[in-house]
Amino acid sequence: MVSAIPPVTLCLWYNGDAEEAATFYAATFPDSSVRSVNRAPADFPGGKAGTVLTVEFTVLGVPCIGLNGGPIFPHSEAFSFQVATDTQEETDAYWNAVVGNGGQESACGWCKDKWGLSWQITPRVLSEGMADPDPAVRQRVFETMMTMRKIDHAAIETARSGQG
Asked: Which residues lie closer than 8 Å to 36 by C-beta, 6 or more apart?
C-alpha cells in the first residue's frame, strides 16, 4: 500500500545515518514516528543494493524525509527545528535528550544533535516575553536569555516581572 504523500515534506540530508536519526527523533518527541525505510533496489555509484536511501518520518507532526546523500552537504544552523515547551521539565527532557545523545550545547536555547541538526528548545514563556508590548520587558527577557545555554523558565519569568 502506498501512503499519501503530504503536500510539503522537509528533506534532511544525512551521511548514511538517516534511519538512526529518525529512530531517535521518534523515540524522543511526541507525535513523531518512522513511517518507512526505503532501500536501494540495486547497486549504484557509491552504494550497494539494500543500502538505506531514504527514511520517511515525522517529528512533532512535521513530515520529513531523511536522505542518505553522503558527506557533501552537512547540516548548519541555517536550518533548525524550534520546539516550543511549556514547563522546565519538558525543556530539560528535550535538551538533555538531544545533548546527551552525542549532541552539543549552544547559546540561547540552541543545541545540535549528534548528526549536526540544530534544535531550538524554546519555552513559551521566552517567546511570550520577547513579544511583550512593553519594550522594557522585552529588553530584560532578551538580556537574560543571552546569558543562557538551556533556557531557565524561572529566570525568564523573573525578567518578565522585573522582580530580579
From this structure: 3, 55, 56
- 116 closest CA partner among 62, 53, 73: 73
* Model confidence pTM above 0.85: yes
Domain boundary among 71, 96, 120: 71
C-alpha grid cell, residue 4: 499519501
Reported as a single tens digit per residue, the pLDDT across 55-109 is: 999 999 999 999 999 999 999 999 999 999 999 999 999 999 999 999 999 999 9
Cell numbers for 73, please give them.
Answer: 552537504
Tell whether 42 and 101 lie within a shared domain: no
The answer to whether residues 146 and 90 belong to one domain is yes
Residues 82 and 67 in one domain: no
Instruction: Count how many domains the chain has.
Output: 2
Q: Calculate the CA 16 to chain-centre distance.
A: 19
pLDDT tens digits, residue range 3-28? 677 889 999 999 999 999 999 999 99
The CATH number linked to 153 is: 3.10.180.10
